Amino acid sequence: MNSKRLTSLKYKITLAFYIILGMAIVNGIIAILLSQKLKTEIEQLVNSEAVKVTTALQLAKNSERLQIITTELNHYDTEEQRLTLLKELTTQWEYLLKDTKVLFSLETTPNTHQALNRTIDTQLYFQQQLPLLDTLTDSALQAKLQAQNIQANLAGMSSAFSDEIQAQLNLTHEHFHLLLEQKNLDGISDNLNQHQALSAYFHQGEHLFALLEEVKNSQNIVEINRLQREAMRLLIQMEEIVASMHTSDSIYLEWLSQIKQNMAGNDNLFELSRNALKSTQIANAHFGFQAKAAQEIATFTQELVDHAEEEIKIAGTNLKSDSTSFVILIFCGGILYCFFIWLTSWHFMAKGIIKPVIATRDAMNAIANEKLDTQMPTTDNLELQQMVSSLETLKTYAAQVKTMAETDGLTGCYNRRYLDNQILKELSYANDHNMPLSIVMFDLDNFKEFNDQYGHVNGDQCLRQIVNAAKSILQRPTDILARYGGEEFMLLLPSSHIEDAYKIAERLRETVIDLHIIHQGSSHSGIVTISLGVACWQPPESFDVNKLISHVDEALYRAKLAGRNRTEVFIDAR
Ligand SMILES: Nc1nc2c(ncn2[C@@H]2O[C@H](COP(=O)(O)OP(=O)(O)OP(=O)(O)O)[C@@H](O)[C@H]2O)c(=O)[nH]1
């Protein structure tokens, strides 16, 4: 008894469909999640590393620009240039700070993070220095411009001094010629002394103006101090010369006074030059620091770029390996999906549906081909189980019909229809396998009289007894007993030679005699007897059923002719 729970085919197919659909959805979701992960990785790479590299490169570029500006700030001549350069310097520091902060927010490596933090501190420090630089450069420029004004004034003075003292020398020279004509020896002596003192005054003055001119180009405070000392010495010498000249002419002293005004005091040429030089040097030192800091930032950002490139390479390799894993995972997912489809198809479709359907079809075919011993398939499918159940009923009906179609209703042995088919098959088999086929035909002797004397009911009973007797002597399962017609019967004995068939026929005849069925009308001891004819087909005889039957019929006829209750064998006279 099948204890399995019956399930509807429709339910199974629906379930299989949902399993396959579910697997497809799971596979799809896995693929989407993985591709999303890859997409995120790529976006991270682009957003973080690419922005990092771009920002670092921009930072390096701005650092270089800052270095150029600091160099340019060492040489400015006008207030406008100074202000423009300082403004640009401020802007560049703002750019640097902004880009560094972007890098700081993107960088994840602790060391680089700290380094960026330090860079930000440096940049903030230098930004704080910008007002100081403004003051320094401003005072340097102002001092420089004032010094240049004094220089310009001195240049004019130098020229006027030269002209005026030269004119005085010329006057002295003309006065000398006059004294010479007058032969005024004392006057000539005084004139020569005055000329000599004036020449010395003139040369010292020119030398002094040359020294003051040198201050303009001096780049060193020590040099300026030396020039100042030298100039003071010359001035003192010139004062001594004026004192030695014993002249009441005030122009020499006035010149000395004018020159002194530009050389002494807080706003004199030397002081201003020194101040300008000092402020410029301090500012330049600051610019140098800034340039150095910018250089360090540029170097650092270059390292950052290299580092980021390295990270991009690593990320690229990781991405490649991730995409390989992705492909492998999708491939495995596909394999798994195929496996599940196969499993589902095999389990639900093949095993649960197709296999039982085929088994049911085969069973139906077998029943249609009269193989009524065919086992009915077992299935847990509700619809198929119903079909099998109906088939079982049909099989029973078919078995009954078959039995009815093949069996003689009176005696229970095979009927003529079955015999005709079977003898054809057996002869064909014998022909194919090169085997003999014997047949025995027997007929009750004087059965008409039996019927007449004992009635048809007893006649029928007699026939059944004879058939049972014939069945009892058949030993091989392949031997067949059939009613040929009326009171005539036939034994089909496959693979039996004529001698064996004859022995069987004789045994049957004796068995019938042993039945002792009373038959007053019989010519043999008052009991029912039978006459038998035996014929055998054996290769290489021609395949002819009718001929074989006519042979056995002829043998039976001879047995009847010869007096009945005997067996005659057909012997081919040819
Ligand atoms: N009771 C009964 N009799 C049958 C049956 N079939 C045929 N018979 C009878 O069998 C008899 C055959 O008679 P016949 O053909 O003359 O042969 P016979 O009397 O046996 O004489 P031989 O064969 O020459 O010995 C007939 O009377 C048939 O009615 C049957 O099924 N039942």
UniProtKB/TrEMBL annotation:
Domain annotation HAMP: ranges: 351-403
GO molecular function, one term: diguanylate cyclase activity
Cofactor names: Mg(2+)
TM helices/strands, residue ranges: 15-34, 326-349
Top EC group: transferase
Protein name, per record: diguanylate cyclase
Species this chain originates from: Shewanella oneidensis (strain ATCC 700550 / JCM 31522 / CIP 106686 / LMG 19005 / NCIMB 14063 / MR-1)
Domain (GGDEF): residue spans on this chain: 435-572
Enzyme Commission number(s) of this protein: 2.7.7.65
One Gene Ontology term, aspect cellular component: plasma membrane
Alphabetized PROSITE patterns for the sequence: GGDEF, HAMP
InterPro entries in alphabetical order: Diguanylate_Cyclase (IPR050469), GGDEF_dom (IPR000160), HAMP_dom (IPR003660), Nucleotide_cyclase (IPR029787), Rev_trsase/Diguanyl_cyclase (IPR043128)
Catalytic activities: 2 GTP = 3',3'-c-di-GMP + 2 diphosphate
GO biological process, one term: signal transduction
